[in-house]
Design goal:
The structure is a homodimer. The first copy, chain A, is an alpha+beta fold. Chain A is about 40% helix and about 25% strand. In chain A, strands 1, 2, 3, 4 and 5 form a five-stranded antiparallel β-sheet that branches. In chain A, strands 6-8-7 form a three-stranded antiparallel β-sheet. In chain A, helix 3 packs across helix 4 and helix 5 crosses helix 8. The first copy, chain A, is elongated, with a radius of gyration of 19 Å. At the A-B interface, helix 3 and helix 4 of A face helix 3 and helix 4 of B. Chain A binds a DNA duplex (30 and 30 nucleotides) through helix 7.
DNA sequence: CGCGGCTTTGATGTTCATCAAGTAAAGTGG
DNA sequence: CCACTTTACTTGATGAACATCAAAGCCGCG
């Protein structure tokens, strides 16, 4: 009897390229040592500075990574969907302290994999290590490019960019969806105030580019939005 | 006779933690396959999109990494000093194309190490791989934090932050030094226009916080500059 | 049902980009 | 080496974009 089938990790592992390089023993050690936790929408998963000896991997739901600066303002670094590689960026710093805070923006299930296990895989399994590095590189550059792109845009451009990204990366290109973030959070993500995010939404609504009703949003004129995103 | 002593890599390797995990054979293969190139101040080392099968490592001098967007504007991502780990972030993307442009801002010596060699080390040498990942993580987060910090500051804060960083990371805490960047480049780094960078310098000069004469600069009131950097 | 947080709009002021124009410095060719 | 051209630097004036402040409506929740 194949013991690995008993472990629910299997499903995750199939979905995620991250684990595609593990052999059966390595796979089993993840199965036996991982911890799974559930969080309700709005709950804080971990706060920056807290001790952390796990790679926290998103199985389902939606989370945000953010930083609080001394000025009290919050800056959202990334919104993560299940099985994306952002978590790789949050581990293996000098200290074992969390670099970023993390909160569920929808009901979420998270998997905690001990870091010493990951470390062992990196040390012993070259394919795993190389894949890890490739993904780390990719996600780092994506985040950095995102910051630069955002910086290059004005208010309308940033909001348009955010909406298009959201539709593409989280809602598979659908034009109607629920906004997972509050206006305030969108501001924290794109570097604008809540009021101005709302003003941009209102303008887009009046210009019939979007339909928006509370959290419900529909992109009516994708081409216009794309133009505004490129330069708005 | 110790053949490794013949290779000038040795000095680099001693200085750089990056190679501290290589064994003698791995070390020798770097020695024999690396290429060294020199660039004059202002010369472009590589442009984004060009084919690149090397890890380009800075031995001496000073370089900038930057991106040109469709709007024609240039965004400087990082200024690198010799032996820092930023280059690790520029390799192992899907394509073998350079993600960022790179130019010498002082006369520089660069070492080109074939990527397939680095790849082999990662695959076969766990310590090397783990060290690579740790450094990659560290530098990525540093760059990201930098973007967030810059975003949180106004013009004066950004210029102050830039000057303090420059003094600390490049000039070992000295208060008198030559600005390695033009006013325009400083603007491209901190996300402000050339004119406003100059205005901030002029203000700081009138307030006796700095002395500035062309490229020559002296930090007179470090505490004030730090306050401005933190906010305002 | 009333409180607090989220949303919305308007009015106002600050900050910064843009435009313009002039000076200084640095590179170029005769 | 000097005239010439170009590039970098500097200051001021103006306007646009955005933050801030204020007030009111909405919604969910205890």
């Amino acid at each position: 009897m194949d013991k690995s089938k008993e472990c629910e990790c299997k499903e995750c592992i199939i979905k995620s390229l991250f684990f595609s390089n593990l052999n059966i023993d390595e796979f089993k050690s993840i199965c036996s040592s991982k911890i799974q936790k559930e969080f309700k929408k709005g709950e804080i998963i971990i706060e920056q500075g807290q001790s952390l000896d796990f790679l926290i991997y998103l199985k389902s739901g939606l989370v945000k990574y953010y930083i609080k600066l001394h000025d009290g303002r919050t800056y959202i670094i990334n919104i993560s969907v299940p099985f994306d590689d952002f978590p790789l960026l949050t581990v293996f710093n000098e200290t074992h302290l969390a670099r970023y805070s993390m909160a569920a923006i929808e009901d979420s299930v998270l998997c905690y994999i001990p870091l010493n296990l990951i470390r062992e895989f990196i040390m012993r399994n070259g394919n795993f290590a190389f894949d890890f590095i490739s993904k780390l590189n990719y996600i780092s550059c994506k985040i950095i490019n995102n910051f630069i792109l955002i910086r290059s845009k004005n208010l309308r451009g940033r909001v348009a960019f955010f909406l298009l990204n959201l539709a593409k990366t989280i809602y598979n290109g659908k034009n109607v969806f629920e906004l997972p973030l509050s206006r305030k959070e969108i501001g924290e993500l794109i570097g604008m105030t809540t009021e101005n995010v709302i003003r941009a939404f209102s303008e887009f609504r009046k210009e019939k580019i979007i339909r928006i009703n509370g959290k419900e949003i529909e992109i009516l004129e994708k081409e216009k939005l794309e133009k505004i995103s490129i330069y708005g």
